[in-house]
Amino acid sequence: GGERYTRNGSFHLDGGTLRTAEGYPVLFVDNNGQTVSNVQLASGFKINTDGTVIDQQGRSLRLKVVEGPVQSFNRETNLGQSLYAANQAPQLANGNIVVHQGMIEHSNVDLAGQMTHMITVMRAYEANQKAIQAQDGLTDKAANEVGKV
């Protein structure tokens, strides 16, 4: 189905091939910027912060890390399993990335804290809504009943 892209950096070594969590092989780029597939890595390889992979054989390849506008990877191209297809060919990342071997990026949002905050805000909103309704009722009474004889 062509090249697919993922933000899930949970890779594992399977028989010398670096694979995604779903089992798809990871693509690399050589020094000329050409895509290299079916790379066999020896155990004990290291990944530098720029994405360069150096194995025990001394080969120097880079993980194929791409960047592009958000519109390139929209919801219509979400193929499930954290895979995306690109509407237009993305460009190779030009050095403004940092790769950390053995680490996985997680969300920096405290979900439980945000849910608690959202409930607090909803209750405050409901209290304000009731106060406005009570004021509206008093204004209605004042306009319609005070002037009656």
Walk me through what this model shows.
- By secondary structure, the protein is α+β, with helices and mostly antiparallel strands.
- Helix content is 23%, strand content 19%.
- The chain has 1 helix and 11 strands; from the N terminus they run βββββββββββα.
- The strands form 4 sheets. It has a 5-stranded antiparallel beta sheet, with no helix packed on it. Strands 1-2 form a two-stranded antiparallel sheet. The chain has a two-stranded antiparallel ribbon with strand order 8-11.
- 4% of the residues are buried.
- The mean pLDDT is 81.
Q: The biggest beta sheet, please?
A: 5 strands, antiparallel
Order of helices and strands: EEEEEEEEEEEH
Average of pLDDT:
81
Structural class: alpha+beta
List unreliable stretches of 5+ residues: none
Task: Outline the secondary-structure elements.
Layout (H helix, E strand, L loop, with lengths): L11 E3 L2 E3 L8 E2 L5 E2 L9 E2 L4 E3 L5 E4 L2 E2 L10 E3 L2 E2 L6 E2 L18 H35 L4
Antiparallel strand pairs: 1-2, 3-4, 3-7, 5-6, 6-7, 8-11, 9-10
